[in-house]
Predict the 3D structure of the following.
Amino acid sequence: MARTDAALSWLLTLAAVAVAGVLVHREFFAPPSRTPTLFADVNDPMTFVKDWRSLIKEGVLVGDSTAPVLVVQFSDLECPFCRQFHRTLQEARKTWGNRIAYSFVHYPLPQHKLARPAARAAECAFSEDRFDEFVTAIFAKQDSMGVKPWTSFASDVRIDNVKRFSKCVSDTITIDRIERGLALGALIELKGTPTVIVNGWRFPVTPPDTQFRRVVGDLLAGKEPQR
């Protein structure tokens, strides 16, 4: 009887693992939809996040915290849509200068095996005061991730102490800001990356350049953005 119970318990455990595997596969490895984020549609309206300012402190702020336009982006450094939006954001910053700032909140997706190491490397670059430059370099050469060493990216953005940077990257200690980003993304029910929030207005999918610039322009003019 004891052997039967043990065998039954073992089979139930295997079944649970199998079901969990199917769910994970469906969630993260389903064929890509026609939009960058899962379960969202480009025609969905923008929504307003009431406590959006509390999200800013959970990421790395690039720019002035008093800027009239503040962007919160939940991002994955291996995500091609994140690369696309980062270019849009960088062009917007060239246009509006210190009138726009952004907070980069880490949200490395589990199906991207290099996303979490890249997030760690970015945090190490933050310690060397080169976060924005490093993130931009990663996105610019995203296809080289896994081939090009992190220290080479560090040299590209002129991190002075590459040895200290390398030690930081190889460390195994948990980085709180990455874990907080993941927890926060789950809390606000993120559907994909990038998730973009501008002065509280959350886009349903990755905003194209024209839409993003229109929304920023509306906000700078003191108007509610067109949705």
